[in-house]
From TrEMBL:
It comes from Teratosphaeria nubilosa. Keywords: Hydrolase, Membrane, Protease, Transmembrane, Transmembrane helix. The keyword ATP-binding does not apply. It holds the Pfam family Asp. One of its GO terms (biological process) is proteolysis. This is Acid protease. GO terms for molecular function: aspartic-type endopeptidase activity.
Length: 417
């Protein structure tokens, strides 16, 4: 990505399959991809389509079922609830259709016997934001034409066709900065016990989903923040935030973000709304190895239970064209993966985004309306555990066999039955 690097996941769309590399989006139910006809000016790199994870052309797809908002408007406006809270990107104009997904680079092996995941909502957009497409992993349906209609998400379809037992996903973004680097991990129907835990007694925070607002269903609290090398804790807490991998950064109120940046010796750039990191600062911080620890709780009224610690390497991100005024793909800028919300009271804008998911292992159990957060374990070997729905065997966890580990060139998606 142009704000990463990130682990992408391989998804084939349509017939014949068009290969895409997508980022998991915890708050999205649809699959959102870059349209092949997207315009690009002379400053774009020659390989811009590959840099964007591949592009999609509906007219080359015989399984594409075009959906239109109205007889006069071919676009749907895909909502970005999280981005709407953060800035100008409240929706994404896209050509939308129903199509087949295969969670496999070759398109030949799927958990449903080769037919793929049918009738999935796919939106093809022309904008430069987001730079990479998104694979919606939510366990809730899309509503293309209002609440009276519903289209199953990929996870819901896997549940309904028997490919997985439970409406459950598990995700960590991986640690490209680790030595050796560790890819992201995404599992449907279970979790990877080598990447994290779902058990409170083993260090996981178990939180009820926010049933009042499904756009903020992964809502929890930060009870305290500590920065290594700083005396005491950051002021202005506790704070209610939302976990959402759709958002690249961590968004915090001005005063809290400034307190963290002050310890790191970084200054906010008003022009581009970012904390840039110059080479001198980067060398010093890379040598001193500071870290930022987030003590999490289910809500602001209870004590913290689980700490997720991000080393400087996780917070130091690299921006490429066309972010922050960068005009050429040969130029890059370092920046801090923490942003300011704009004021100290806009708590609806506070998110723990994909940057946070590098050191957090998050699971969502829609059958039990709860999610868990635990420190991510950076292991490449897998230990996939299937999760039974309520009424299944035992406590809800089973040692079910792996129905399919769908291996791609970048990262793997685990599907367990």
């Amino acid at each position: 990505g142009n704000d990463g690097p990130w682990s992408t996941f391989n998804v084939n769309i349509g017939t014949p399959p068009q290969q895409m590399r997508l980022l998991p989006a915890t708050s999205e139910s649809a699959t959102i991809v870059v349209y092949q006809g997207s315009g690009c000016n002379s400053s774009c790199p020659a390989n811009w389509e590959d840099l964007r994870g591949g592009t999609f052309q509906p007219s080359s797809d015989i399984s594409w079922k075009q959906q239109e908002y109205s007889a006069t408007d071919p676009y749907f406006y895909v909502p970005f609830d999280t981005e709407a809270a953060l800035g100008p990107y409240s929706f994404l104009a896209a050509y939308v259709g129903l199509d087949t997904l295969k969670l496999d680079w070759s398109g030949a092996h799927t958990p449903s016997g080769g037919s793929g995941i049918l009738d999935q909502v796919v939106g093809a957009y022309e904008a430069q934001f987001p730079w990479l497409g998104l694979l919606g992993i939510s366990g809730r349906p899309s509503h293309l034409k209002g609440v009276n209609t519903a289209e199953n998400s990929p996870l819901l379809t896997l549940v309904s066709n028997g490919s997985v037992k439970s409406n459950f996903w598990a995700y960590t973004a991986g640690a490209q900065y680790n030595n050796p680097s560790v890819d992201g991990s995404l599992t449907f129907g279970g979790y990877d016990a080598n990447r994290g835990t779902v058990d409170a007694s083993s260090g996981a925070l178990v939180v009820p989903m926010n049933s009042q607002d499904t756009s903020r269903e992964l809502q929890l609290a930060i009870q305290s923040i500590t920065v290594s090398g700083s005396p005491g804790q950051i002021a202005g807490l506790p704070l209610t935030v939302v976990l959402d991998s759709t958002v690249p950064e961590i968004w915090l109120p001005n005063a809290i973000a400034e307190s963290i940046a002050d310890v790191l010796g970084l200054v906010w750039n008003d022009t581009y709304s970012v904390y840039f990191i110059n080479s001198t600062q980067d060398n010093a911080l890379s040598s001193s190895h500071p870290s930022v620890g987030f003590l999490l709780a289910a809500n602001v009224s209870v004590s913290g239970q689980t700490t997720i610690t991000l080393p400087y390497a996780a917070l130091s991100r690299t921006a490429h064209y066309p972010l922050y005024g960068i005009a050429s793909n040969t130029t890059s800028l370092k920046y801090l993966g923490i942003k300011r919300t704009g004021n100290d009271t806009a708590h609806s804008q506070c998110y723990l985004g994909r940057t946070f998911f590098q050191e957090a292992y998050v699971t969502a159990d829609y059958n039990r309306s709860q999610f868990t957060v635990s420190p991510a374990q950076h292991q490449q070997a897998t230990n996939i555990i299937a999760v039974d729905p309520p009424g299944g065997s035992g406590s809800g966890l089973s040692g079910g066999a792996i129905a399919g580990i769908v291996v791609g060139a970048i990262a793997a998606i685990g599907i367990v039955a």
